[in-house]
Amino acid sequence: MSARHIFLTQAIIEDLEIISAEQDYLFQSLCTDMRLMGGYLCLADPKTGAPFQLILFGSLADDKVEECLQLLVRQTRLLARCADVLSSRHLAEISLPCAAAIRAKDISIIAAAGPNAELCESFSLAIAYLLGILDKEESCGIAVQSNNFHFTEMAIDNLD
Fold first, then answer.
1. Residue-wise DSSP of the chain
2. Residues 119 and 97: beta-carbon distance below 8 Å
3. What is the pLDDT of residue 145?
């Protein structure tokens, strides 16, 4: 990692710590079915896909932890190999039903594993927006390409 990436990564981690208290609220605002459970949010290196920060959101059964973490690593590493792709949901071969990863410019890959891919992508896009990595237009552009209407409707009403 370059010095710029190390500095930006540290800033992202500090910002995540600040908003981490709000992440369950954000997650709940993205959920329309309260029966859906939580998962993990991951920040990963954009070149290698190697995770460098994991945060639990919502609640997750102990027997699902390893599966969630494996899905995150798979999504981030495969997206890192596809430098021109902005979301794992844009690639059928790496799109998974309960995980999604987005490219947050050249700063990070943000991924989530949890209830379903659309919700995970929405959560990742919202985190990228809250961190100031993606603006509303960029976030909505990725969501539109993924046919993620859940995020675009939420963004129109809540992001500004």
1. --HHHHHHHHHHHHHHHHHGGGHHHHHHHH-SSTT---EEEEEE-TTT--EEEEEEES---GGGHHHHHHHHHHHHHHHHH-TT-SBGGG-TTT-BTTEEEEEETTTEEEEEESS-HHHHHHHHHHHHHHTTSS-HHHHHHHHHHTT-HHHHHHHHHH--
2. no
3. 92
| pLDDT greater at residue 110 or residue 25 | 110
pLDDT in tens, 29-75: 665 432 356 788 888 999 999 998 888 777 778 888 888 888 889 88
CA gap 18, 13 in Å, rounded: 9
Q: Which residues contact 48 (CB under 8 A, 6 or more apart)?
A: 77, 80
What's the pLDDT tens digit per position in 62-87?
888 888 888 889 889 989 998 899 99
Contacts 24+ apart (CB under 8 A), 18-25: 19/127, 19/130, 19/131, 20/55, 23/55, 23/57, 23/127, 24/57, 24/58
